[in-house]
Design brief:
Blueprint (H helix, E strand, L loop, with lengths): L5 E2 L19 H11 L5 H11 L3 H8 L16 E10 L5 E10 L5 E7 L7 H12 L3 E5 L12 H9 L3 H17 L3 E10 L1 H13 L5 E5 L16 E8 L1 H4 L2 H11 L3 E10 L12 H19 L1
Parallel strand pairs: 1-9, 4-5, 4-6, 6-7, 7-8, 8-9
Antiparallel strand pairs: 2-3, 3-5
Length: about 300
């Protein structure tokens, strides 16, 4: 257990050629994008607000919109993995059935299993690529699509965000609980379950740590809202908690979360990556910060190998 925050001294690195870099984008535009991503303002308000706060703000805002072709790091035909879509029961969820992206490593298995939970807009190409990255490291990965009961990820984040916000949130979380049980109990699974997620998925990772108790063996939430303080004693899984440096809304929840983890004797590590934005692991926009994303991912895989082996 860490008694203090671990802060990594990293310098900013440009995103792939053809896009503005983090250092060229005004922090006020990043802040507006965060509001937009979390559904507090719509796209028009985001673009208009960015144009108003600084010269070149509209171009900065447009550069932040995701370009998912950049996000693919592992092809769905990669010889190390086998990927397919599966459906499974989800009693008490949005529709009683769920669909997810299941990726297994090469070989007969069984494999330690990792649930990969999307952001607040459904199973987009970036999260599918993350599932492939997990499988390439030797884990059975399932990325559920919380939007599957309403037609699935619609192909763009704006509509996906609207669809997800319109769901019964309790039933949506039940769908994630059922996804975890489906993955853990499958024939290809060793029975040892880890969970990781991003933004809404990070919050849901913390929720699953509470809900699943000892059935979950490791959790890695990326910039997710903390679990409710009163529920923290139910957490039995070791947690590796990853935060962006410039993320006041989420980071402000950490002191109470840490106090609860300490009081309950939970096993945890927390790392904060300075100079990074909420979403720094997502390589489809200039919020992506390559050295921080790589370090956080290396820690994630090492953590799962340690606790799920």
């Amino acid at each position: 257990m860490d008694d203090q925050w671990n802060v990594e001294p990293l310098s900013l690195t440009p995103v792939p050629p053809g896009a503005l870099t983090q250092s060229e984008i005004d922090q006020r535009v990043f802040d507006l994008y965060d509001e937009y991503c979390h559904g507090h303002i719509d796209r028009r308000a985001f673009l208009q607000g960015a144009a108003a706060v600084t010269i070149g703000g509209l171009a900065m805002a447009q550069a932040l919109l995701p370009r998912y072709a950049r996000a693919q790091t592992i092809s769905f035909t990669d010889e190390r993995i086998k990927a397919r879509y599966v459906t499974y029961p989800s009693p008490g969820g949005t529709s009683g059935e769920m669909r997810g992206y299941l990726v297994q490593p090469k070989g007969p298995g069984p494999f330690p299993a990792v649930l990969v939970i999307h952001e607040n807009r459904g199973l987009n190409p970036y999260i599918e690529d993350v599932a492939r990255r997990v499988a390439a490291e030797g884990f059975l990965a399932l990325a559920p699509d919380g939007l599957s009961p309403v037609g699935g990820y619609p192909g763009n984040d704006d509509d996906g965000r609207t669809l997800q916000a319109g769901l019964d949130q309790g039933k949506l979380r039940t769908d994630m609980v059922n996804s975890a049980h489906f993955l853990k109990s499958g024939a290809l699974s060793s029975g040892k379950l880890g969970v990781t997620g991003f933004c809404w998925g990070g919050s849901t990772t913390n929720f699953l740590a509470v809900t699943l108790g000892a059935d979950m063996k490791a959790g890695v939430p990326f910039y997710g809202a903390a679990a409710e303080t009163a529920a923290v004693p139910a957490i039995k899984a070791p947690l590796l908690i990853q935060y962006a440096g410039n993320d006041e809304r989420i980071n402000g929840l950490w002191p109470a979360f840490e106090a609860g983890l300490k009081a309950s004797g939970a096993q945890y590590e927390m790392y904060m990556y300075p100079g990074t934005q909420h979403g720094f692991h997502n390589n489809s926009t200039p919020r992506y910060h390559e050295p921080s994303a790589k370090l956080a991912w290396d820690r994630t895989i090492a953590f799962f190998k340690k606790h799920l082996a």
